[in-house]
TrEMBL record:
This is NADH-quinone oxidoreductase subunit NuoK. The lineage of its organism: Archaea, Methanobacteriati, Methanobacteriota, Stenosarchaea group, Halobacteria. It comes from Halopenitus salinus. It is a multi-pass membrane protein. The chain crosses the membrane at residues 6-23, 30-54, 60-84. Its main location: membrane. Pfam families: Oxidored_q2 (PF00420). Its EC number is 1.6.5.9. NCBIfam families: PRK05715.1-2, PRK05715.1-5. InterPro entries: NADH_UbQ_OxRdtase_chain4L/K, NUOK/Mnh_C1-like.
Length: 100
């Protein structure tokens, strides 16, 4: 059986990679992928603590986070399509304000 601290180190590494992607990338699709990495790190933590305490509550919350991530991707892809249609690029620094 793998110790819980290894799962926590893995989650911290995945979260740091996602945070690095959010802070350094300017493309909207990279933002979405980085946020997904950060949500997956949260899922790893939830499931690791669920296993450690012998309770299924963390796994239930992880399912909710997965549903939240799916909704976030659906809305994010819609925003990326509107961004590309209006400005011709997916760089998030190009549009200064969203207007009609």
């Amino acid at each position: 059986m793998v110790a819980t601290q290894y799962y926590l180190f893995l989650a911290a590494a995945v979260f740091c990679i996602g945070l690095f992607g959010v802070l350094t990338r300017r493309e909207a699709l990279y933002f979405l992928m980085s946020v997904e990495l950060m949500l997956n790190a949260a899922n790893i933590n939830l499931i690791a603590f669920s296993q450690y305490y012998g309770d299924l509550t963390g796994q239930v919350f992880a399912l909710f986070v997965i549903a939240l991530a799916a909704a976030e991707v659906a809305i994010g892809i819609g925003i990326i399509l509107v961004l590309y249609r209006n400005f011709g690029v997916t760089d998030v620094t190009v549009p200064r304000e969203m207007r009609w």
